[in-house]
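Lecture 7 notes: from sequence to structure.

We start with a single chain of 897 residues. Read the sequence below before looking at the structure.
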Amino acid sequence: MSVALARTGSGRIVNRPRQASTSSVRSTSAHLSPPPSGGISSAFEAVELDPALAALDISHLIEPVTEVQANISVERACEVLLEKKEWCIAVMTQAAGTQPVCTGLFDFSDANAYMHLAVTANSLTPEDLQNDRISQIVSSARLRKEVPVELACNLSEKNPLVMLRNDTSLTTLLEIFSRGTHRVLVEGPEQQVKGIITDSALVKYFASNHDKITTSPVITQVISTSLLDLGVITPPPIVSASPDSTVLDAMTLMSQEGVSSIAVLHPGPDVGVLVSAVTVTDIGQLVIPSESKSVLSMKLAAFVSEIKNPHGMINGEDLYPVYSVLPTSTFGYTIEKLLATKVHRVFVAEEPEPSSPFGQGNLKGVVSLIDVLAVFARRLGIEANPGLMPFSCVFSVSTVLPAIAHDLGAADRINWVGISFLVATTSSQIVIARLSDIFGRKLVLISVIALFTVGNLLSGFAQTAVWLFTARAISGIGGGGINSLCMIIMSDIVSLKERGKYQGFLGAAVALGSGIGPLVGGALSTAGWRWVFWFTVPISIACIGQLWWMLPQSELSGNFSEKVRKVDFIGSLLSLASVVLILVPISGGGTYYSWHSALVIVMLSMGSVLAILFLVVEWRVAVLPILPLHLFRVKNLLIIYTTTILTGIIYYCNLYFLPSYYTDARGFTPIQAGIYLLPLVLIQTLASSLCGQILVHTRSPKPIIIAGFSIWCIGAGLQSTFGMETSKAKICGYLILQGIGVGGTLQTTLVAAQASVGKEHRAVVTGARNFFRTLGGAVGLVVCTTAKNIELKKQLWKISGLTPDLIPKIIKSGPQVTMNPGVDDAVHNAYATSLKTVFVIFVPIAGFSAILVMFLTPVLLPGDKDIPSTKGPHPINEQEVALEPIPVQQQTSRIVG
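Now the structure, written as tokens:
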């Protein structure tokens, strides 16, 4: 059948959540008695391989594989499967003057997924079509063009390309197969394809050599034990359909549920009576050769009859065998049936009483090749867990993201836990800073801590993903306010002379928190992910009590209504809306939304328009603007805000990409990744405190800022050399340099900014500085992630043994998704190369910042003779005179004296 002509039917794309959509197609349920507890306990004990067998490689299992060119049509590839009677074929590409390279495997599961995609093309959503491969297939089908088989490789997501060397051990192969892979290709010394090994070949080998596998008789006992006694029957629910379902229903169900066969059931006791089974091979052998789309609407009862009619017999051989076994069938007999059917699973049904003319008995379960190999693996002491997937992360909340994704069913949206917090933090900082000028620092600080507490409390109780994202946004508003107000209040209660020291202490506290975050998160994750949010609640409550008792209240004129009238409501709303509308698509573009989607374009356009309106309101309308535009006429502020945006890129990207370098490129464990971040954050802690002390004595922030950015630039340059062979000592040394640079600039630039304006602008200047740093981090993460992914994709395409469909998964989820020891090293190296691209980006940013700060107008913090000497901090309402720039001819003498 030419699928380009097929237009009938309904269904969902194969990559959508797998659930049946028609009433005649269902998953059935029943109960299966557990295996008896006595009599065969020895069959469940793990044994050790015979040393001679353990030393065997996989070379004796290699079978020839049929190769086809990547540019032949899918229809022609299906014909090859039928002609050659193959399980699957290898799809090859070859550039001029090079060896052919395998780009993927193609089998009847992929053919079924392809046909289903073609016949349901008209019902696909715009979200479905954002997938480039699916979009190309659908476009070609609509234009009646041939689709190259290269696009259909592993379209079913059941057929990943795994390449192994022929000296790979038998136990490694068993481990790979027992975790869900059906076949692997074997490559020679020149990376050419030598052949293929299927899971059925390994099953056949174990079944034929069970008496030689181990010196213990345990495996032999397993072979002769019944399925019921072994407990290997996968109980219902089982993917099934009624005889009244159509062939298209069966194709849809197999695509959505990710199975290669479904049971056809008559109503009956428990699950129902097994009539037959329909496999992807049956679909391929009858649907593909058909020139009429009417076969898609054929009832399964008629389809099964077609399978069993004489046209299906050639030389007495049934081309479409449908086998079932009994619960009392032995494990060895079941293996024989699996090998005879050339499918991945057989159904387990009771023997009908009385004998049924149309059925094989009540359905009880299913046994697959993976189940068989998992039995062998467990008996030989090899862990077999198809669902095992390692996760790595560094920060406290990130540590529990996999658990959150599982509990709330939000695996495809889990990054919004961080995005919602980041967007809320960024958008709130300048608004909260100005509110503290109007209502007082104490009231606003306690309010934002309360918001942070409520947000974390709600996050811990979250029952849905939307609930959690909303709660994290509430926490983000509070967190952004805390970040700004702590610095503002520090500036209020500490004189300019001492401010560098105390801001250094504050920066040290922030750095230390970043460093211990991974350790705290990892420790709390053992108690459940909710405690990662809840543990901050008592700490926050204690902080509120302490601040209420100890922090003096600002004496501000006017009653509450007068203060409310001062609030720049229009500017605040425009600021919040524009930041959200810009940061949300920036954070999710290319991951959750296509950059070309209407949603991203509309949000960015609206955000840009609202940002312009915000500037107009701040310039012409607001009585007390949250961001006075005249501040940008101050040269020092313009330079500091520019460098703040730039260094925000490096600062936040380092916290994000260094863990990826450690885990994805170097193969470190998550806890090791956290430990190797400590040279950066701990040295930043010490440097921040030390530079604060130096500033007290020198009173001039500019030399410290220039030195800090210069050292940071050197550290960034050395970091750009990170690769697979970089020693741990060099990693630590280079990060120590960056830690010195970060510690020497983050707080000293804030002091310089505050010293460049009058006291009345201190809160706004501080809030804006924090806003620009977070904004730089948000934009930088997008830019650097895009650069990394472009380079990573380019590097992954160079690796023979990776299918085109696997590359996006590796980019999204990390190198662990390959589950292929043969290409692991190459994938890790690809990550190292792509991350080096990010680290190289840091160098010109740090260099430009180091040059830019040289143009700062020097300011001198007041010494003991400039302001009255005080013991300790002065009150919030103390007058403070704005500092004037130092004339050039006086700079040297005043800095010294």
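The domain at 41-222 is CATH 3.10.580.10 (CBS-domain). Keep this in mind for problem set 3.
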